[in-house]
Amino acid sequence: MSDPQTTLATISAEVSACRRCPRLVEWRERIAREKRAAFTDDTYWGRGVPGFGDPEAGVFVVGLAPAAHGANRTGRMFTGDRSGDWLFRALHRAGFANQAQSLAATDGLELHDVYVSAVVRCAPPENKPTPAERENCMSFLEREFETMHDVRVLVVLGAFAYQALLRHFDIRPRPAFAHGAEVALPDGRTLLCSFHPSQRNTFTGKLTEPMLDAIFQRARELSLAAVDQRSDS
Predict the structure, then answer these.
(1) pLDDT class of 231 with cuts at 50, 70, 90
(2) Domain spans of the chain?
(3) What phi-psi label fits residue 185: left (phi over 0), alpha (psi between -120 and 50 degrees) or beta?
């Protein structure tokens, strides 16, 4: 049986080569050709973006989709955009990352006990994937879940990711999304909700850095408690 790192590498290669959704393929490749003025000299990734992080992570972070000029440019999830700036500063403060910046896939960032992924792996127009595009992509996330046996806490960034995971785990009735809400999953893991660190939320103060820090502090607490419970059983 393959080890998690090898299996995740296989999934990552399939994500990078995926062309299941014609609308998303056309958009990601157009953005990679046209570029943003600030990144004219950059070679855009322009493909599906894999998850990344610690294969033995206890905490799994799930976002919506790559940003057009962020991960679609750099090839690494949440890397090179304002949302990622917020996320990785919080992960660094919580001790999950060796540095507070995520600028490029070669910048030396290392994640410890955390893995970062998304429901949809290609940058969608207006950040709005269709239900069919979401379903096309979910198999990648499901395989990551199946591969990573040490995950004890799933941190969902935003209502889109939250609803996708409620469907995946068949949670009924479906609790309303709220920042800081916790949902106990049938397999004993915990779904922990956070507002997405989008500019719309951070510029307006709907999400503050202390609020995001509290989420990852709680994620660590839940993960450690689950380890202790397994040790006692």
Answers:
(1) low
(2) 4-232
(3) beta
Q: Is the pLDDT of residue 113 over 70?
A: yes
The one-character DSSP state at 156 is E
For domain 4-232, the CATH class is alpha beta
Rounded CA separation 213/109 (Å): 19
Question: What percentage of residues in the chain have a pLDDT greater than 70?
Answer: 98
Whether residue 229 has pLDDT greater than 80: no
Residue 70 contacts residue 88 (beta carbons within 8 Å): no
Residues 10-20 have pLDDT tens digits of 999 999 999 99
Q: Is 112 exposed, middle or buried (0-12, 13-18, 19+ CB in 10 A)?
A: middle
Q: Which residues contact 56 (CB under 8 A, 6 or more apart)?
A: 4, 113, 148, 150
Residue 233: is its pLDDT beyond 80? Answer: no
77, two tokens:
């999830």
Q: Which two tokens stand for residue 31?
A: 């953005």
N- to C-terminal Cα separation, the chain: 26
Q: Where are the alpha helices (DSSP H) in the chain?
A: 4-17, 22-34, 71-74, 82-93, 131-147, 159-169, 199-204, 209-232
User: Considering the chain, what is the average pLDDT of its residues?
Assistant: 96
d(CA 153, CA 226): 9
- Are 84 and 70 in contact, with CB atoms under 8 Å apart? yes
Q: Tell me, what DSSP letter sits at residue 45?
A: -
